Amino acid sequence: MTLLRGIYILTALVLSNSMCFGQINDTLVLSTVEIPSTRLPVYSPGGKVQTIDSAAMSAYRHKNIADLLANNSSVLIRDYGTGNSSLISIRGLEPRQSQVSWNGFNLNSASLGMTDASLIPVAALDNASIAFGTHSTTFGTSALGGVVMIGNDIPEFNQSTSANIYTHYGSFGSINSGIDLLISGKRIESRTKVFYGASDNDFEFRNTALKDNPITNQTNSDFSYYGLLQTFSFKLNTNDLFEAGLWYQVYDRNIPPVMTVPESSASQKDSTIRGYLKYRHSFRNSVLTVSGAIMNDDQNYNDPEHLIRADYDIVNTFAQADHVWNITRDLIWSAGISVQSSSADFAEYAESQVRNTAGIHTGIRAKINERFTGSVSLRKEYTNIEDPPLIIRGELQYQSLGKTLGAHISGGNHFNLPTLNDLFWVPGGNTSLDPEKGYTAEAGTRIKLQDALPEFSVTGFFMQVNNWIKWFPRDNGLYNAENISEVRSTGIEFSLTNDIKTGPLAHRAEIRYTYCSTQTLNTDEPFADDTEGKQLIYVPEHSGGFNWMVAWKNLTMRYSHRYTGRQYINPDNTSELDPFQVADLQMEMKVQIKQHLIAFHFDINNLWNEQYQVIAWRAMPGIWYQAGVNLQLTKTKNND
User: Fold this and answer.
1) Using one digit for the tens of pLDDT, what is the confidence trace for 88-101?
2) Which among 136, 147, 310, 440 is most buried, taking Cβ atoms within 10 Å?
3) Distant-in-sequence, close-in-space partners of 476: CB < 8 Å, separation ≥ 6
4) Which residues face 445 on adjacent strands?
């Protein structure tokens, strides 16, 4: 009854219009005050958020978001090989402790707790950004290391109708093609994205697991995918906007053997359908957003050699309501509710399982004076299985009057729910698991003295996670899920960015570096003395990258270089992967024909032919090539 009463009261507050404003875009300008219509700028106004620029989104259209993030951010990708799973790790935490959010909805698997980034083609997206650090009050569970926010553009209406047709061919029989179609009227807008990709993926590699390290070809590694993303937007009137979206995709791949195994016949098919509805209403001093979604993810795994055939079907439903008020010129308040139901029908569970989660959250952002802004946010979630703690986050932001210097400091606690596999898998699942929880602190600064000078930023972070969930063998030899560890992650992120434009010549250079120490403080698992104080596996202490883009008239060149330091592959840190460096080169030439545009592309991937492994004994390709053409047709809008 307490839960129902709390949700009822907050629902009344969220849906009320006694103090109201609003607009169609993410940010409303009222007089000279900007008011966000989403909760992140309220709950974390000064936190580290990186937005991938539109030029990079376009350059990586024929790849997946794992490639995009690896080459354009300090996010680490645990890549199991081209065409295979790619998992996201932020600030030294596990992939299940970072969230991927699509148009505000959590994409992380309810069974595994993570998102496979290889299954998300950039072709399906319009934008991508990363909110680094803990954002549990904003996004709920799995938002400890950070949140990758992907989505589709907010409609602008009454724009030119356009079609973007592209195709790329490359090494190993690879092909990526698609079409983007925009139809925009005064009150209705339609965006259609159709995409297809395939590859034989039979690249050569040096097998370091065999005697004399012979050169061999990757086998059973071909893959293909196709999909459709459709959005409709309706501007009912000046104050009301309705959106609907559908994302359908099928990804079919064979799973190659690791280097230590001669062959594999395993395969996997992932079929996904996601749909959402969103309604936004603008009042006088606030904006109300109500949305819902349903997502069905079906994975079919087949391994004839080991007599395994399994089908994993998960259905997630979401309902959310957020209301953001402009109380005064310097005070913004946000409140909301969210409900999620996750059902899984697995043969490995004793029976079909459902987890229902209801969350309430609120936050306030206050401009203290011309230089300082502060925020406080809270969140409480309830489930039919666990009892997550109350989450509180506070932040203080400084901005100099000339905006040449910025700084922020934040802190709070966090939580992460056990996955359905952790709870119900037979054997080994444990319905008595507690949520992972802990606390975090972060401080950073940004300096840009003049437009012609580089921008410097540095952020230090600290996170502790208690009740860390691990699967480990008991005396009977079976693996069991237990809350057995305490883990601490500390580090520093540094970046230096410079943009210069002189006449027809423009260039952008970025250097980034991350130091991350993620260690087990104490654990109840066997051989604890060998693992306490040791770096977690697949978390490099040192990583970084360099990006350089230069454009002259209709020619553009992009060079990206990333470094990954030593990674340990066992908990006692006695075995490791060598550091590696991978570079990519992209070249583009554009030809303008009236209002239409043709762009020719040529990519050299792994430019220096580095032989490396991201995951132990998983082969990665050496140097390989892609070439393509993009045709953009535009029908100019006649406003007469």
Assistant:
1) 999 999 999 999 99
2) 136
3) none
4) 407, 458
* Residue whose entry in the numeric block shows the structure tokens 């210069």: 500
CB 590 within 8 A of CB 561: no
User: Nearest Cα to 538, choosing from 50, 95, 3?
Assistant: 95
Coil, strand or helix at 47: coil
Residue type, 16: S
Other residues' Cβ atoms within 10 Å of the Cβ of residue 615? 19
Q: What residue has token string 């400890």?
A: 144
Pairing of strands 353-367, 331-345: antiparallel
Rounded CA-CA distance 50/74 in Å is: 10
User: Which residue carries 């998960």 as its tokens?
Assistant: 314
Question: Is 15 strand, coil or helix?
Answer: helix
- What are the DSSP calls for 520-583, one per residue? EEEE-STTHHHHTTPBPTT--SEEEEEEEEEEETTEEEEEEEEEE--EE-STTS-SEEPPEEEE
The most distant pair of C-alpha atoms in the chain lies apart, rounded to whole Å, by: 80
Mean pLDDT to the nearest integer, 340-364: 95
Q: Name the DSSP class of 154.
A: P
Distance of CA 416 to the CA centre of its chain: 17
Q: Which residues contact 459 (CB under 8 A, 6 or more apart)?
A: 48, 132, 442, 443, 444, 445, 492, 493
Q: What is the pLDDT of residues 257-304, one digit of tens each?
A: 999 999 999 999 999 999 999 999 999 889 999 999 999 999 999 999
Q: Please check whether residue 148 is in contact with residue 100, taking contact to mean a CB–CB distance below 8 angstroms.
A: yes
Backbone angles phi, psi at 391, to 5 degrees: -110, 130
List C-alpha distances in Å: 610 to 98, 218, 295.
29, 16, 39
> How is residue 434 annotated by DSSP?
P
Strand-pairing partners, residue 247, are: 229, 274
Quick: pLDDT tens for 29-48.
Answer: 433 345 455 678 888 888 89
Average pLDDT of span 603-609: 98
pLDDT at 378 over 90: yes
Residues forming a β-bridge with 399: 406
Q: Which residue has the tokens 């950070």?
A: 146
Residues in the chain: 640
- Tokens, residue 104: 């505000």
Q: Mean pLDDT, to the nearest integer, of 169-174? A: 97
Contact between 483 and 433 (Cβ < 8 Å) = yes
Q: Give the Cα separation of 408 and 422 in Å (integer).
A: 36
Quote the DSSP letter at residue 138.
H
Cis ω for the linkage preceding 427 (within 30 of 0) = yes
Spatial CA neighbour of 626 closest among 594, 596, 595, 588: 588
The chain-wide mean pLDDT, for the chain, equals 91
CB 330 within 8 Å of CB 369: no
What tokens were used for 37?
């219509």
